[in-house]
Structure formats: C-alpha cells, structure tokens
Specification:
elongated, 20 helices, Beta-Lactamase, 6 domains
Length: about 500
C-alpha cells in the first residue's frame, strides 16, 4: 500500500469519527434545549444551589411562587438570604448539612404556602455537587387541610354537645337508651324537635312511642309556648271523636254544652297534639284531619267560621299504615302528609341491651315508690333478660311491679316471677310479626334442642330424634349453654 493510499484511508476514518462526534454534539445540544425548556416552563418552581450554598439558577416559576426575584438570589449565599429575611428557612442548607433529601413547608412573600423538596446531586466521589430544590404550590391543599381540621374540631364539639344533650334528655324523661338503636332514635328525636314537621311514630304496642313524643315536645320551642295534648283515636267512640278533636259550637247537637266546647286542636294551640293509634281514625275524620294539616284551619261542629290553628302534629300507630293504604283502609294523601318524618322504634327483643337497664330502672322506681328494698336473684334476672317481651317495655314494667308487690321477701327468685315467664315461653316469637329468617331458625333450634335434652338422657338419643349427628347436638347445646351462662 502506498503512502498516499495510507493517508487517504486515515483521513476517511478521521472524517467518520468527526461526523459521529458532530451528531452527538447536535443531540446533546437538542437535549439541553429540551431540558432548558422544561426548566423554564415548569409549573413547579426549580432552584439550583451549589455545594457552597450559593444559588446558581432559578426558573420563572420560583419567582412566581415565592415572590423573590432571581436578581435577589443568583450568586447569593443562602445563609445570608435567610439572615436578611428573604427566606424563612433554607431547604438547601438542610440538605448540605444532613446529606439526604429534605422537605419543608414555607410561606412566601406572595402569601402562597409552598412545599420545598431539596435533593442532593452527587459527584463521582459521592460528594454533594449541587442541590436541586423543587417548589410546589400547596396553598389550596393547606387551606383544605386547615378547613378539615376545623371541621373535625366542630364535629367533635357538636358530638359532645349532642351527647350531653342526649344525656340530659334521658335523665329528665327517665328514658333508658343503652342500645345503639335507641340512642340513634333519641338523637333523631332531638333533631326533629327543632323543626315543625309532622312526625309519624311506628312500632309495636308498649315500645315507648308516647315517651318519645314527649321528648320531641319538651325539646322544641313549643314546650314554652303551648301544651302537650294527647288523644287516643282508638279509645274514643267514632261518634264522639270529631267533637273531641275539633270541638263544637253552642247547640251543635242534643246534649251539647251551652257555650260549646274547645277541641283538642284548640287546646294544643302553639303546642303539640299527639294523635295516638292514628290507624283507628274513621274515614270521614281522615278527610277533616287532612284539611287541618294542609290549610291550618278547621270548622268546629255546628260552626260556620273557620278556626285557624298553629299545632305541631305527631301521630303514632302499631299498624302497618302503608299496607292499610294499599287495602283502601287509610287515605293515601293523609298517609303522606303524616309521614313527613317517620321514626320506627324497634321492639324490645331487637334491642336486648336495653333490657338489663330497664330492669334496674323500673326496680329502683318501684322501690322508691313503695319504700321497698327488693331485688331479683341472678336466676330471676337471667330469665327476665332471656324473655322476648311481646308486650315490650310496658309488659316489662308491669311484670316487675307485680313481682315486687306479690313477693314475700326482699329477694325475688325465679319461681316468684309471673307465669308469663315460664321456661316453655322463653325465646318464643310472634308469627304475626316478621323477623329475620336466621333469627327465627335459631330460636326454634334452641327451643327444640333444649326440650329434647330435658326429655332424653343422652345427646345420642337427641340426635336420633332430631335426625342430626351427635356432634351437631353436642356443639349446639354447648353453644347455647355458654350463651346463657354469659348472661348477667
């Protein structure tokens, strides 16, 4: 190969290398332009500080978020900037000191709350070369957090006030509300008391509908301005009910009082009228009651001039009004007028936590009334708690009073309880009332196993009669014994 050919080949290789280097330089310049564009146009603020604490670069967003101009910080020592009050704190100085990523929250001149995160950039010897600070506006987030904290504080305060109000109402009205269900019902009653909406109370006989009605009245502004008037729609003959509700004018009918008579609506003016057993209201009076609710007025028997009334109506029933509407036994329009706010009080068997407290409450009340010092034995208490109480609170109160009066000593045993509470009547349920299927199955299973164990000598015999395995009988019998023994 000649010298010229050698030189020519060398020059070709050199030119190829130079072209590749040029391409890399162009790529690097393009990447740098992209990075510069990102740096300048980033919505978040970016600041770069060297390992001496000197600011070497900032982007426009940093100026916008902090209110500090780049002329104030470029080439300046961060220590001096903090001393002069340009910044309250310096995340870059913390990074240089701790040698790890650090975050602080700082309020700028603009009033914006910013979160500043400093990240160390290391050289090949694992020494900090620069610190990159990312600055993000968290003013709205910070404001929302403060609002959340204030809301939580208010919620806690309101909850404390509600609990205290509930406690006072319970004490003043001799209410027992140990169960979550009853506590929620009392809370709802207190809220309803603040408005004048019509209320419909639902629940079996004896659950405490009248007591709840009095809570609503006593907790309302009407307690100071008007009376609480109760009328039982089912206890008054239909022929007399209209005159009792709406009153009558002189000479309205034979035997009417000479000067007429005020009805319950007028007596309850500015107060509360409790219409108990509303389901028993005759159809013709349903129409008249609907008019009173809609028009706030009525015409007394024998009268011609409408009487305006300002009364809060609370109705109650142990019947299924909706079903009665479907059967045509109760006016649909009246049902919806009454059913503005409905409160359903569960039967005692659905809130067993209240039973021990009710027993204690009525025992203390009867002891105080008659000067007794009586109490139930553990076995008697267990039987009282286990009973399903189809008559609810009213039945419980009556049986406790009867037991206290008829018992001879101060200790009332299991055998001195009313015959209604005999063993064979425990855990029975009323098929006239719908209860969850799993509850019904368990009650029936419990009763059958107990009766079979009383009749037969071994679990093997019981299993044979019930047509289940012996292991099933033994397991379930133990379960029910454990549950009974855990009762107070």
């Amino acid at each position: 190969m000649s010298y010229l050919e050698l030189c020519s080949g060398f020059l070709d290789d050199l030119l190829d290398i130079l072209m590749r280097l040029l391409k890399k330089l162009i790529d690097i310049e393009e990447a740098n332009r992209d990075l510069e564009s990102i740096f300048l146009n980033s919505y978040d603020g970016i600041s770069i500080v060297n390992n001496k604490g000197i600011t070497i670069r900032v982007n426009p967003a940093m100026e916008r978020l902090t209110g500090v101009k780049k002329e104030e910080v470029i080439g300046k020592d961060m220590r001096q900037l903090v001393e002069n009050g340009v910044f309250i704190d310096s995340v870059s100085l913390r990074v240089l000191e701790n040698k790890r990523p650090t975050t602080i929250i700082q309020k700028g001149r603009t009033g914006k709350q910013t979160i500043m995160t400093g990240t160390p950039i290391m050289d090949g010897n694992e020494r900090i070369k620069n610190v990159v600070i990312n600055i993000r506006d968290v003013t709205e987030l910070y404001s929302l957090n403060e609002k959340l904290q204030r809301t939580m504080e208010l919620t806690n305060r309101y909850q404390c006030e509600i609990n205290e109000l509930r406690r006072q109402v319970i004490e003043q009205n001799d209410i027992v509300a140990e169960s979550k269900e009853m506590q929620e019902i009392v809370d709802l009653a207190l809220r309803v008391a603040k408005v004048d909406s019509t209320v419909l109370l639902l629940g079996e006989s004896g659950v405490g509908k009248e007591v709840l009605t009095k809570i609503i009245h006593k907790s309302s502004s009407r307690f100071q301005s008007g009376s609480f008037i109760k009328i039982n729609s089912g206890a008054i003959p239909a022929s007399l009910l209209e005159s009792e509700l709406f009153g009558y004018e002189e000479g309205a009918f034979t035997g009417a009082k000479k000067k007429g008579k005020l009805g319950m609506f007028q007596l309850a003016t500015k107060g509360t009228l409790f219409l108990d057993e509303i389901s028993e209201l005759p159809p013709e009076l349903q129409v008249k009651l609907l008019r009173v609710i809609q028009e706030k007025e009525f015409i007394p028997l024998g009268g011609t001039v409408p009487v305006t009334v300002d009364v809060r109506i609370i109705a109650a029933t142990n019947k299924n009004l909706k079903k009665m509407v479907e059967e045509g036994k109760f006016r649909e329009d009246l049902f919806y007028r009454l059913n503005v706010v409905s409160i359903e009080i569960p039967p005692l068997r659905k809130r067993r936590e209240d039973i021990p407290a009710l027993i204690f409450h009525f025992s203390r009340e009867i002891n105080d009334r008659y000067g007794f010092k009586k109490q139930f034995t553990a076995e008697a208490l267990k039987q009282l708690i286990r009973y399903d109480w189809p008559g609810n609170v009213r039945q419980l109160a009556n049986i406790i009073e009867r037991s206290f009066i008829t018992s001879k000593g101060d200790r009332i045993g299991k055998d001195e309880l009313s015959g209604e509470l005999t063993e064979e009547k425990l855990f029975q349920f009323d098929f006239g009332n719908i209860i969850p299927l799993n509850e019904a199955v368990e009650l029936l299973e419990r009763s059958l196993i107990k009766k079979a164990l009383e009749k037969y000598k071994t679990t093997y015999e019981v299993a044979k009669v019930l047509k289940v395995s012996q292991a099933t009988v033994a397991r379930k019998a133990k379960k029910y014994r454990d549950e009974e023994s855990s009762m107070p």
